[in-house]
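pasting for ref
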Amino acid sequence: MPALEGDGDAGVEWRVEPSSPDADVDAVVTELRARAREEAPGLTTDLVVVPAALDALPRLVVLDVDSTLITGEVVEMLAARAGVEDEVARVTEAAMRGEVDFTESLHRRVALLEGLPVDVLDDVRAEVVPSPGAATMASALAGAGVPVGVVSGGFLEVVGPLAASLGIPHARANALEVEAGRLTGRVRGDVVDAAAKERFLRELAQHHGVPTAGTVAVGDGANDLDAVRAAGTGVAFCAKPVLAAAADVVLRHRDLTAVVHLVGVGRPEAG
């Protein structure tokens, strides 16, 4: 029987120490699931196997923003103010499932925002709701000296202030073009797509001297595929099937404190 440590709170992985170094991981997880069902019937948990070697590595966490760090999609919040929310939502869903090229989908959605007054961004910033556990995660990782960055196919005008409010020092996203106080329906510069997200992960890791094996990428959609595959640990967070199939870890419970325990910050030591 493996040793089980942890308080079992929602969104927190229990740590399992196999009974022998050669124990089969799948067998341990199967046994733990059975034990959890027996001891806490009805409890919803995410079971995550974390290699002990991760504790010895410098670590870095990079997160997507829309539907990951926050509960909603900023482009849809803007679209609601332009009266095109349903149309934008359909394109967003298709892009996150990988059915539409992300860059094409972004240009199509932003074009529908043409003419919106720029001050609607203030309203959207006030409307954004961080995912449960986001502030706790950011604070715990910062306190442990783990660098954190956010990278988004959304908009820097919202992502930048959000990251600053959570104490996250690194942020990259698209910039909306504005003329005469109104959105033009275009973005400035290159689009932050899946490849750009992977580049951001690698650049940040190099900047902080973190090996690839110590990097953790967290996202929810097809636009996160490259970063999740490139990271030492790729995490699908309440994700679309296309990303869940590619990730090392699948979290179905919407609580970002799970990321804290995944990287070993605050995870209880087995005794």
